[in-house]
Design goal:
two-stranded parallel ribbon; single chain; 41% helix; alpha+beta; 2 strands; 41 residues; 29% strand
Amino acid sequence: MRTYLVVIDETEEARTALHYAAVRAIKLGRTVEIIALIPQQ
């Protein structure tokens, strides 16, 4: 089974990428793995 790997941060582009991957995964019966980037304090 294929898995989509999505790297996200706080940007709108990351949100769009996650949405796209989720929709594709649902349509194709695949999974999504997420790596979240958190800014250093």
